[in-house]
Amino acid sequence: MMQFAIFAARKTPWDIIGENFTLLAAALLAFASVVVVLFLVAGRATVRAQEWLKYLVFLVPALLLLLVGLIYPTIRTIIFSFMDAKSENFVGLDNYVWAFTIPEILVVLRNTAVWVFLVPFFSTAIGLSIAYMTDHMKRPNVIKSLIFMPMAISFVGAGVIWRFVYAFEPNENRADIGLLSAIVKFFGGTPPNWLLESPGNTYLLIAVMVWIQTGFAMVILSAAMKNVPDEIVEAAMLDGATPIKRLFRVTIPMIRATLVVVLTTIIIGTLKVFDIVRTMTGGNFQTNVIANEMYSQAFRQMNYGTGSALAIILFLAMIPVIIYNIRQLRLERTER
Amino acid sequence: MHLYDLDILLMEALGFYARINFERTKMSTIRSRFVAIGATAIAASLVLAGCAASDEETTTAGGTTDTGDATVAGCEAYAAYAGNEGAEVEIYTTIIDPEASLFIESFVEFEECTGITINWNGTQEFEAQIAVRVEGGTAPDLAIFPQPGLLASFSDSLVPADADLTASVDANYTPDWKTYGTADGTFFAAPLGANVKSFVWYSPKTFADNGWDIPTTWDELLALSDTIAAEGNVQPWCVGIESGGATGWAATDWMEDLMLRFQDGDTYDAWVDGSLPFNDPKVAEVLAEAGKIIKNPDYVGNVQAIATTSFSAGGAGVVDGSCAMHRQASFLGGILVGDYGATIVTPTDTDVEGGITTFYFPGVSADNKPALGGGEFVGRFTDSAAAAAVQLYLTTPEWNNVKASLGGWFSANKGLDTANVADPVNKVAVEILQNATLFRFDGSDVMPAAVGAGTFWTEMTAWVAEDKSDKAVLDAIYASWPY
């Protein structure tokens, strides 16, 4: 009898699949009936009403989703950032004062600044040079694919891969699996414990992000370079411009708008960086960044006040970049 | 750019719930899961043997403590629970298969004799669902709480322990265990299983080959470390505290274990609940003692590398003989067997290459034997005689012996015969629990999350990785305590 109870409680895979498909069918049916009703109503409406219906059907769902998914959470987070850990009492600006006075958090802010400065700079610079060098190459695809490939790896995956590269084995009796240590040892050096030594460890983490983002910058910039008219390049060549001069005097000014979009997009991505730090150092050893600390505060230490305050700081830091990014995108569109 | 937006979204969506759960129960569930896996691996053959045996000789499968040769004789022992024929009792718990089937097996005789049917309802969603069920008026008859904190939040709905249960728990468990089943001054929940953290892992072969003796006091432990360091062939200690986002918890266990040794139970409780400031000289004394091993390069080699050595890889040195000792809870055995080719042996098996076992992490003196660990507690929600009978039965030495003999499990029950505990590590654990002068739960699991899952971890990590001073570490944790 007891055995029976256990078997009754446990579903077979087919039960679960059946249940899920029934649910799916019901959802599709509901969606189809809504569409049918809409068409029926639209067919009977007057032309004027149809105009209104059009706005209603297309705008209302989008607005609703924005409201539920973006505006409401933003307001709630702002309110939480002025409240205590359990979101019960208002504490004024305490959480913000905390964020800008506690030494551990100041390290977090400093690191984020370093990331935001270095990652976009190096990814764009390297991406630009590769794009420029491969621009008139006969078969650039192999090189470009190789550079672009890291883009397809998730941040967590990249973090795990690079942790192996930076691995450090203190015990001489055991095999050292760290690639970077192996290189240093080959040249007769003594490798440090890579992920431990501050501030070098932050730069090692930044290298991972650059590794991922370079491909993105390269592909977009390479596409933009294809749009630079050949006549202008040829004219510059006839005037005796060296390739370096052509890059700075012709190509870069011609693709300036794209360059800015690439830079700002990478800045936004870098501000939010979380996975790399979390998988590689867990935010220890002075490598913490704002998104990781926000997660720790809110969901591990269960302090929604400080977590929300950090989220809002991140949000505020990102707004100007986003505005600039959107304006440049518009500018680029009007130029074409 | 959309690529990693999607990435984070996925992580949030898929991992979110699991993670929150994970972080909330901190490492305790994970660790106990390791225990389960490990124990299962070790005891697999034993369980199989047990199953086979029960097919052939159902009457004696009930356990070695039963005197009778047939169910009739067995049933006499169950007279106290009579009068509940046909009743059903639901047990709601986090314990799922494969362990659940061993529990169900252990109830068979009880069910046959008393006519009570026990419905085992195990789910990993227990912690989230128990509140829903209690609020919704469909509370289970019995619930097995994996941590005392959760138990305390249901003190309004739980049925207080009756006289029989109180008497049984008083007789069979140390007062510390009763305290953990007590909320707001009322004793509610009876202890069930237990786990122990106060272990030092070592290789009997390495110890025998070098003629080292098992230390029985903290001073002997340090003296042995000095001896090993002076001989120079083997590193005395391996320590590793890296654990991804939870890096540092292994170091907090050191602190807790030593807190119980160098201070008393009351000080420990005050430290955990915050009435003793984290930068108090008493805490500083404990941290300094921990530093004698963890921050001593003669003992642990590269001190900083402790922060980048994972807690499981730390124990690997004991298996391959590159270090002599490693302090970690019992679950580590499963990892070392699975990932590093270790074999769990008894302390007398001195010729097994890669054989590992444990000794008790010693106290300051030979008669100072505190234990750090954890356990589950059975609370009752319905006022029924059948549920009360099951709750009572689970505290008896009879049931604890039956359950332990099925393998991979032990409890703090004083009536538990170590002969029924086959696994050598669990056997040591039972001895530790039965001899314990003091028993306390893992303090960092009970402290406010800002400390217990926050600064206590990160500051202990900085303590080894950045050589942060004892004072700076304790002051930083003190500053983060939400008073």
Question: Keyphrases for this structure?
Answer:
heterodimer, A: 336 residues, mainly alpha, MetI-like fold, 2 domains, 15 helices, globular, disordered N terminus, B: 483 residues, alpha/beta, D-Maltodextrin-Binding Protein, domain 2, six-stranded mixed beta sheet, five-stranded mixed beta sheet, 22 helices, 13 strands, 52% helix, 13% strand
Give the integer mean of the pLDDT values of chain B: 82
- Total strands of chain B: the figure is 13
The number of helical elements of chain B comes to: 22
Give Rg of chain A in angstroms.
27 Å
Distance from first to last alpha carbon of chain B:
42 Å
CATH topology of the largest domain in chain B: D-Maltodextrin-Binding Protein, domain 2
- Class derived from helix and strand content of chain B: alpha/beta
| Number of E-state strands of chain A | 0
By CATH, the topology of the largest domain in chain A is MetI-like fold
Notes on the protein architecture:
- The complex is a heterodimer of chains A (336) and B (483).
- Chain A has 336 residues and is mostly helical.
- In chain A, 76% of the residues lie in helices and 0% in strands.
- Chain A has 15 helices and no strands.
- The longest helix of chain A has 34 residues.
- The relative contact order of chain A is 0.11.
- The N terminus of chain A is likely disordered.
- Chain B is globular, with a radius of gyration of 23 Å.
- In chain B, strand 1, helix 4 and strand 2 form a beta-alpha-beta unit.
- By secondary structure, chain B is of the alpha/beta class.
- The longest helix of chain B has 31 residues.
- Helices cover 52% and strands 13% of the residues of chain B.
- In chain B, the strands form three sheets. In chain B, strands 1, 2, 3, 6, 12 and 13 form a six-stranded mixed sheet that branches.
- Chain B has two domains: 239 residues, Periplasmic binding protein-like II (D-Maltodextrin-Binding Protein, domain 2, 3-Layer(aba) Sandwich), CATH 3.40.190.10; 210 residues, Periplasmic binding protein-like II (D-Maltodextrin-Binding Protein, domain 2, 3-Layer(aba) Sandwich).
- The N terminus of chain B is likely disordered.
- At the A-B interface, helix 1, helix 12, helix 13 and helix 14 of A face helix 1, helix 4, strand 2 and helix 21 of B.
